[in-house]
Amino acid sequence: MIYITIKDIAKKLNISIATVSRAFNDKSDIKIETKNLILKTAKEMGYRPNPMAKKLIQKRSLTIGIVVPEFLNSFFPEVIIGAQEILFEKGYQVLITQSNENFETELKNVKALEDSMVDGIIISQSSETKNVDYYQNLINSGFPIVFFNRVCDTISSSKILFNDYKWAFFATEHLINQGYKNIYHLKGKESVSLTNDRLKGFMDAHAKHKLSVSKEQIVPTGFRIEDGQRVALEIIDSGKIPDAIFASNDPSAIGAMQVFKKKGFKIPQDIAFVGFTESRMGAIIDPPLTSVLQPAAAIGREAARILIEQIENPETFKPQIVVLNGELNIRDSSVLEPKII
């Protein structure tokens, strides 16, 4: 492949390299006719700017790293799509990694992105992340970083959050309003702040309706399909079957639904389900899963916007916390058909 340089363009037009450079950089000290001729000739010759040279001039890699816990749930890919919309528009490339819900892998990914000289990182932590000292040191050094969805409350950085408490409250109240009283909550990992927010929403919805919550109604679970399957078997083996389950996310709800259906339980007649995160899988399973929709693409766009702002204004930038809203999509997994009298 033959690479066309500004020297080739200058030679063809019999002008100086400096004149070609002024045209490409949109300088004012060049005639518009000359500029247009240079740009037209460059296009005809198939000229493309040298990306490495551009990065050296700007003292940036024009590359952003994104770290997510997993790709099995459609939520994280949709966040990435939203972030890419903004980043590509601003001329940034994206390097994407996933931690497979493992803190050591997450840290390796972050360090690899640093070694790749990314200008900043957008990250959602794994369910195993507990030690955040490395991230705080990065932030203290001035490295641009934005956390989303799964964040640590003790880190002083920009964060894109969802109102987990509010929508967990609404999701639980929906089940209560349907007539379900004995509702179990499949709780996420303790190390993730949204776990406690969703648990609090669950508890407060019960308190509002003067319903007590026993210890057995709070079931430590996790975020994966197999976590839901495991606790569903434990619940069935205990012989204490709840009226309904509100899960901390869709995969754990789907896993539990699979087991209950396999064991002969009818959904929602015998046991109802509500999830969280509005996965594509949840919308197509039988019966379709009631779930809280999080604006995944908007979360990605906000994270990218704030990260770029920090990169471009390092001296004046102040960390920002953005909280986004959602909606409850009610489907057949939680709604009993009205009785015909």
SSE arrangement:
Blueprint: H1 6-13, H2 17-24, H3 32-45, H4 51-58, E1 63-68, H5 75-89, E2 93-98, H6 103-115, E3 120-123, H7 133-140, E4 145-148, E5 158-162, H8 164-177, E6 183-187, H9 193-208, E7 218-220, H10 225-238, E8 244-247, H11 250-262, E9 272-276, H12 280-284, E10 290-293, H13 296-312, E11 321-324, E12 327-329
Parallel strand pairs: 1-2, 1-3, 3-4, 4-5, 5-11, 6-7, 6-8, 8-9, 9-10
Antiparallel strand pairs: 10-12
Helix pairs in contact: 1-2, 1-3, 2-3, 5-13, 8-9, 10-11
Plain-language structure description:
- By secondary structure, the protein is an alpha/beta fold.
- The chain has three domains: 44 residues, 434 Repressor (Amino-terminal Domain); 132 residues, Response regulator (Rossmann fold); 131 residues, Response regulator (Rossmann fold).
- 45% of the residues lie in helices and 16% in strands.
- The protein has 13 helices and twelve strands.
- The strands form two sheets. The chain has a six-stranded parallel β-sheet with strand order 2-1-3-4-5-11, with helices on both faces. It has a six-stranded mixed β-sheet with strand order 7-6-8-9-10-12, sandwiched between helices.
- Helix 7 links the parallel strand 3 and strand 4.
- Helix 1 crosses helix 2 and helix 5 packs parallel to helix 13.
- The longest helix is centred in the last third of the chain and has 17 residues.
- The relative contact order is 0.12.
